[in-house]
Write a structure and sequence with these properties.
By secondary structure, the protein is mainly alpha-helical. The protein has 2 domains: 36 residues, no CATH class; 98 residues, Cytochrome Bc1 Complex, Chain D, domain 2 (Orthogonal Bundle), CATH 1.10.760.10. Helices cover 50% and strands 9% of the residues. It contains 9 helices and 5 strands, in the order αααββααααββααβ. The strands form 2 sheets. The chain has a 3-stranded mixed sheet. It starts with a helix and ends with a strand. Bound molecules: heme C (HEC). Heme C (HEC) binds next to α5, α6, α7, β3 and β4.
Length: 148
């Protein structure tokens, strides 16, 4: 575990213990978990600036297909559920390269965003937002930002 990750983790633990989330978050001790769950929740529906930015980027680039708040549509899957299965690297791979599902007469296309700078630059933030939603740590709608 790097020093930075260790420090982040210790901070998380202190936060978890202080706010009654210890049972949900206190057991995750490896650095994998910090990678898979980059978001920070400081209070109900209040998140770190990156995760907040992810909310905004998601609603600019993804929600027209994947529905508001990651809840899916008749065209594209509910990403709140997808991220209970997909790992962060798998998520990144699909967004960068896109995917096409032509099975059984369907013509559903997940576009490739590898060339879309405003998505690539903020891919970590979009992931963070969706993972917080998927973990049930963040509700619907526009979150608040943690105080600086
Ligand atoms: C034009 C519509 C469209 C847009 C815009 C779009 N997607 Fe998709 N996406 C899809 C479709 C359709 C699928 C399902 C493809 C399939 O069935 O293989 C999909 C699949 C995915 C998957 C895989 C889900 C799974 O369960 O395997 C991820 C992750 C994903 N999209 C993320 C995103 C993100 C993040 C954005 C915004 C940057 C985005 N998508 C924008 C249509 C879209």
């Amino acid at each position: 575990m790097s020093l930075v990750r260790a420090a982040v983790f210790v901070g998380l633990l202190a936060f978890a213990a202080g706010s009654g989330f210890a049972q949900q978050q206190g057991q995750s001790s490896d650095s994998d978990d910090a990678y898979e769950r980059p978001y920070k929740i400081c209070a109900e529906n209040t998140v770190d600036p990156g995760t907040y930015n992810g909310y905004r980027r998601y609603h600019a680039f993804c929600h027209q297909c994947h529905g508001p708040d990651g809840l899916g549509s008749s065209y594209a899957p509910k990403l709140v559920d997808s991220l209970q299965v997909l790992k962060r690297d798998q998520f990144n791979e699909v967004v960068v390269n896109g995917r096409q599902n032509l099975a059984a007469g369907q013509e559903k296309v997940m576009p490739s965003f590898g060339h879309v700078e405003d998505v690539m630059m903020y891919l970590d933030d979009i992931y963070s937002y969706l993972k917080a939603r998927s973990d049930g740590k963040l509700g619907r709608g526009r979150p608040q930002r943690c105080p600086a």
